[in-house]
Task: structure prediction
Amino acid sequence: MEDLLNAAVLAANYIVIPATVYGCQLALGALGVTLIYSVLRFSNFAHGETMAFGTAVTILVTLSLQGIGVGIFPLPTALLALPVGILATIGLTLATDRWVYRFYRRKRSEPIIFLIVSIGVMFVMSGLVRFLVGTDDRVFDDGMRFLITARDFKELTGLGEGLAIRTSQLITLTTALTCVGLLFWFLEHTKTGKMMRAFSDNEDLALLSGIDPEKIVRIAWITAACLATLAGTLYGLDKSFKPFVFQQLLLPIFAAAIVGGFGNPLGAIAGGFLIAFSEVALTYPYKRLITYLAQSSWEPEGLLQLMSTDYKYAVSFLILVMVLLVRPTGILGGAKA
Amino acid sequence: MKHVTLALFLSTAICAPALADDIKLGVLLGFTGPLESVAPDMAAAAELAIKEANESSRFLNETTVSSVRGDSTCVDAGAAVAAAERLITSDKVQGIIGATCSGSSTAVLQNVAIPNGIAMVSPSATSPALSVVEDEGLFFRVAPSDARQGEVLAEFLRGAKHIETIAISYTNNDYGKGLADSIQSNFEKFGGKVSISASHEDGKGDYSAEVGALAAAGGDVLVVVGYLDQGGKGIVQGALDAGAFETFALPDGMVGESLTEAIGPALNGSFGTIPGSLGPIAERFGKLAEENGFKVGPYTAESYDSAALILLAMQAAGASDSQSYKDKIFDVANRPGEPIAPGELAKAFKILSEGGEIDYVGASNVELFGPGEGVGNFRLIEIRDGEIVTIGIQN
Result:
């Protein structure tokens, strides 16, 4: 019995919890990408940098709040600073849209032009972020780090395996759930949400029924900015903030959005979790888990690792390729490009 | 006859600087990428040596030297080569201080430095592969090869710390693989056991999978051969968060204040090795750094020394082109001669211009051997109460 409990704790500590939290972070990012895709019909490569910008502003506000001694212990101060970060990011995305994307929209440019423009925007934003907070790695999580540490858990339960749960993991999970709930409520039940979906389904029909496209575009940017800042800040709280990493995060985020079905919000969430779980579960060495489950002194020779962790990125892209071959619109079916 | 040669020598010595009264040195470091947080201090240190040369007014008959920075990125060999190409062909530098990382150093050496015949002195490229690379006498490095560091760290683990089993996580590049292999072979030679040696990629979002694999294999200590701003930090943080490991062995790339600041008290008790020395010269360099507004961090001393070696070799050769001074680098770095401490470049220029010999000790106790690389002094460090404390020196 104890062995089974140990096995369960081991799996939770090294597979389920980390993958769930990483999945939430990817899903929030993928939602933003997918939203812009469904309304503006292009893949926004600047999304990673938008996340970094939102987080950077949040960090700056957090620092000044800490400076004047305002905090909400045991929760991190960054949560208090988040609204400012979101507002600044909304300002940035709206300004980018006004000064950059609108020009191409008026010219009715091809989606590929938009995509390339977004790469340009990405470079400008990445410079802006480095200008704002520099290139350093920053840890801004000042709340209580752990709800329970592995050592405390072992002492508490007397089990051989420890389970660690961090505050940031819980915050990530709750915020992601709330956020996704709110987003779906917004899309399903409000007039603006319905307008957005109509616009996304058929632009011409939507225009004929008197929907103001500029308004829809603005709302899409505002929502994407909110999601980006949230995703970035939650990720930064859980790990740390480094501009370089946010650029790298773009790849798994795109993989998640495409696997789930580009332009489909539910798909973005499913894709995020699929990518996160496959990265962790397929490269985990099951030696200890099997030893516990076998409930005997028998111990397997090798590490029982399906593939080395070197291949974890290959895993997500293999899934991506397979999905594109077998079901090009993504698992849950995305917008028809 | 003797007088004629002397007169000839003197006349060229006077003429040559008149043609080129300003020479340029390239400072090709990883200003962006995995080591971007240490590169600015390294560059400042290199430029300090250049500033000293200018202020001494004895360098090649009052030739002024300026520096041109280039970004070697550490991760993108193509970008490093392009930056070096620009330094050499458009800025016309006479020597390169750099690159920061082993991979970019090799790429720059083979694609740009050798074809153009420009000498390079790297402060921090430590891959064992660079010891045997065909360099036409143009490549030098102040830092010791990782083959040596692996031996020192393995000895530290087995000897002083009595560790039986280790797990190794290394950054997936020339530096990481080379050092990890060296640690593993030396540790096994000393009778220890390596449970797993797995790589991690830098700059990725999540390291749960890597930490899971390392934890499953187990070990008394996790050796993290990586970068403190990068995957290395992610692995340490992840392992601590999951309760997988409590003590870490940290080679040079992982030792720095940003790591102790980021991780906090959980890192206490971890230990490692870093090239460098202690005592009066280190203190002296620390003071110089403070006066000039930069911090002494990983490889700042070596950067200062790299620039100083190029300048001193130029002075010894009486010329600023690579083909003349490359053969002098060994002479100025090693005995015999007057020992030169950091901040004493003016004195060294004077001795050299008078035909004397020097033994450049510099900020990092420079001693070159065989393939043009540092012999290396290592500080054995331990983290106590969030401070990096030196507990021994291994030569």
